[in-house]
Structures are given as C-alpha cells and as structure tokens.
C-alpha cells in the first residue's frame, strides 16, 4: 500500500545508527486518556495515511496511550518491520522498572525491538542519583539489542550533565520542543553539539500555527515565495538545516504529501537560517510543560 520511498535524508547518530530527519508523531493531539479504551480507528487511519505517504519514522510514547494503535497501523500497513524507524518513550512510573515498562510497550506495538527508546522527561526524578539509576536501566535495553538507540526527551542541560556523569552509554537523542520562538537560550543547543547528542524537535511548526501571528510571518512568507513552498515547509526546513530531526503530527493527507514531497527538495541558505533565528528571538512561546517553567523562562 505504500508509495515509493521519498528522499527523506537520514542523520547518523553518535552510536552509528541512522534516523530519518523527518518523522510522524502520534503525540498529544492523538493521546488516549484511558488505556482501557478500545482501539481508536481514527488514530490507526491517520497513522496509515502517514505511512502510505512515506512516513516510516513513527514516534509514540506510552503516556499517549496509543501504542496499540501504532502497532495496529504497523501490522495493517503490510510492510516489513525493517521499513520503519519506531520510537517510544517511558514515563518512569514510581516503583516500576524500565524493563517492565519496555516489555509492555513492545507487546502493545507488536514488535520485538524499537529503533529509539526515550525517557520522556526528567521531572519525575527526586534526585540526580535517581535519574542516573534509571538511565542505567535504559542502557541495559541498548546492550540487549531490543532498543537499537536510546535517549531522553525534555531534558535541560542540567539533566544531561547529571546523566553523563555516570553514563556508560551516552544518550544519542534529546527530543524537545524546538522552533524559532523557543530556541532554548543558555547554551542547550550548543551543549548537544559539544556532546554529540542529536536534537529532535517536536512542534517545529509552532511559529506558523499556534504561535501565529508573530514577527516571523513576513519572513516565512518571503522565503516561501522564493522557493515556491509554504511557510510550514520553510519552518520544517529551518529545523532540518540545523541538523535537527523534525516531527510533524498533522492528520491532513494533503499536507503530509506536500511536506514529504517538497521539504527534502530545497535547502535554506545560512543567511536565511540565521535570519529566522534572529527574528524568532523577538517572541517567546512555549506550548508544552508550561507548568514546569516560568512564563519568561527561555531555557
């Protein structure tokens, strides 16, 4: 049922594995609040639409409650497991081992390994030692081969430093909210480069969706007209041109098709990347984890 594989570029991670630079996320927009609910056919259908249009990098999490739907979409796609790059995340429930959570996720997904397994956030940890101990449990999954790559999500520099103090295997990825209106001042992005940790962006389209209107509107429009693309495609390209993985959660087949068809086919100039970054700093917007940050906290 899948179309020809589009030319989505891959990025090599620090562990030698490769990750597609554009992926489809089954994020909070498709979260199921009750895990006892029957399979949500709309989530399965949306995911199959993404797969049909060449999105084989699929990102989920146990906290979204829809790993079973992702697994159903994989099974119904008719494609072999090797076609896909599958990510899921653990919420680190109190009193539960990583092994228990991971085994439950594998069963829900209907696979025997994932390509990337992440700690969903650091905010549950009551001490640095607790975070370090949990990371050691994640390392065991990498060693076993059932998680090809391992990483974290929503970690600030202080959390990364804590993990790296004791890590035998460093995180390959940190998945964070990243867009021109949230560039994480204070050196977080630079720290990833220093430590060889790949940055993965969720909500990369924020400046043209939930945070619009804003100072970037005219910049995006001008650059989009230059390349005969849309502002959304410029927003995705801005992320990718920095060596950052971009995730989209759109359920529009038309948008999914045009993004995967156009985004790999053009590249912003360094001057355009820098202009978007500069103008983006004129506005601050955070869409997630707002209960953990003050309104003016740009970390």
Automatic annotation (TrEMBL):
Binding of substrate, residues: 120
This protein's record includes keyword Zinc: no
Annotated keywords: NADP, Oxidoreductase
Active site residues per record: 64 (proton donor)
Pfam families in the record: Aldo_ket_red
Source superkingdom: Eukaryota
Gene3D superfamilies, per the entry: NADP-dependent oxidoreductase domain
Segments forming domain NADP-dependent oxidoreductase: 25-279
GO MF terms held by the record: oxidoreductase activity, acting on NAD(P)H as acceptor; oxidoreductase activity, acting on the CH-OH group of donors, NAD or NADP as acceptor
Lowers pKa of active site Tyr, annotated site positions: 89
Keyword Zinc-finger applies: no
Transmembrane regions: none
Family, per entry: Belongs to the aldo/keto reductase family.
PANTHER family registered for this protein in UniProt: 2,5-DIKETO-D-GLUCONIC ACID REDUCTASE, NADP-DEPENDENT OXIDOREDUCTASE DOMAIN-CONTAINING PROTEIN
Name of the featured protein: NADP-dependent oxidoreductase domain-containing protein
Species whose genome carries this gene: Staphylotrichum tortipilum
